Amino acid sequence: MMGAMTAPNEQPERAEPTDLIPPTPQTPPTPQTPQTPPTPQVRPAKPDLATPLSGAQYRIRAGAYEAAVTELGAGLRRLSFRGKPLVTGYAADDLPPAGAGQLLAPWPNRIDGGRYEFGGASLQLELSEATRGNAIHGLTRWANWDLSDASAPGSAPAPSTHDPSTHDPSTHDPSTPGLCTADQVTLTHVLHGRPGYPFCLELSVSYRLDAASGLTVAVTAWNAGSRPAPYGTGSHPYLTTGAPVVDDCELELAAAYWLATDDRGIPSGPARDVTGSAFDFRAARRIGSTQLDHALTGLSRDESGLAWARLASGGVRLGLWAGPGYDWLQVFTGDALAAGQRRRALAVEPMTCPANAFVSGDGLLTLAPGDSVTHTWGIRVLQS
């Protein structure tokens, strides 16, 4: 509402002095003493509630075999028979040393400079092996994997827990609760597109133990995207017979060819005949001082279509088998590792393709939209 208005010739009434009431003097406010902010309350650490670096732990067991699989990367953290390790293991609150037990997808090994061409496009991956300028071992080994919904209630292991009353910081391993009755676990991961790999894969891996046949691992990839996707896979177990070093172990691996590489781990030419080379293990022989970090192919297979690598010492004999589609076995004596890990175990890595397959196309799979593929490998004790 507008205020009252005066006529143009009228002057507003002047206030008389008696109408002016002087303001009452105001007492300035008393300054407030600043309040001391509350001291942050630091609660004591509760190590029993801490999440291990490798995430949830899934333990499986069958007969004398036991294994632990991690949420981080769906890796094989431990595998034992009668309480003795068959692979290099590590604590749940550690990261996998030198890739121990990791699952590798959608490619194993290295891609030169992380650059490749596919579907008419030039693509650049992040250089995850910065010291050599390569992209290495895929995109899923540091990702969280989920327990599969397909795991039947009561048969799939829940993430491990433990009794805090028994905690001993010097010895505690969050992966060792009470008795585990499950014999298998399946983990899944959706690999969405990203720079350098603009494709979408749904991945799953099942680890199953059998009292007679040991460990079987099944790796499945399904192209859930709208375009063809390049794909390869591998796994990175380090076998151990319990020997302090691999030098005195005997290795038998029926492979006809070996692949030479340059100082960055990139193939430097076609596969070569192993005859007369240091890499001929078609007949079992002592490893000795042989330094191995090579992919072997031309694998002989048994009547079931399995290719075998056998490692033996001290009355213990292990076998790693690779099913159809795993046409390469990368063998690594660990000479480049830290002193505490060097030549302590033998990595035998089943791979569907060799290093730099995204560039060379050697063994590379192309999954059309809706296509899926499964590869299997395993480890068993042949003599103990």
Produce the secondary structure layout:
Elements: E1 57-62, E2 65-70, E3 76-81, E4 84-85, E5 102-104, E6 110-112, E7 115-118, E8 121-124, E9 134-136, E10 146-147, E11 184-191, E12 201-210, E13 214-223, E14 229-231, E15 234-236, E16 238-239, E17 250-253, E18 255-259, E19 272-273, E20 281-286, E21 293-299, E22 307-313, E23 316-322, E24 328-332, E25 346-351, H1 357-360, E26 365-367, E27 372-383
Antiparallel strand pairs: 1-2, 2-3, 3-4, 5-15, 6-9, 7-8, 10-11, 11-12, 12-13, 13-27, 14-26, 16-25, 17-20, 17-22, 18-19, 18-21, 21-24, 22-23, 23-27, 24-25
Question: What does it look like?
Answer:
The protein is mostly beta strands and 384 residues long. The chain has a single domain, classed as Beta-galactosidase, Chain A, domain 5 (Distorted Sandwich). Helix content is 1%, strand content 36%. The protein has one helix at residues 357-360; strands at residues 57-62, 65-70, 76-81, 84-85, 102-104, 110-112, 115-118, 121-124, 134-136, 146-147, 184-191, 201-210, 214-223, 229-231, 234-236, 238-239, 250-253, 255-259, 272-273, 281-286, 293-299, 307-313, 316-322, 328-332, 346-351, 365-367, 372-383. The protein has a nine-stranded antiparallel β-sheet, with no helix packed on it. A six-stranded antiparallel β-sheet has the order 16-25-24-21-18-19, with no helix packed on it. Strand 1 (57-62) and strand 2 (65-70) form a beta hairpin.
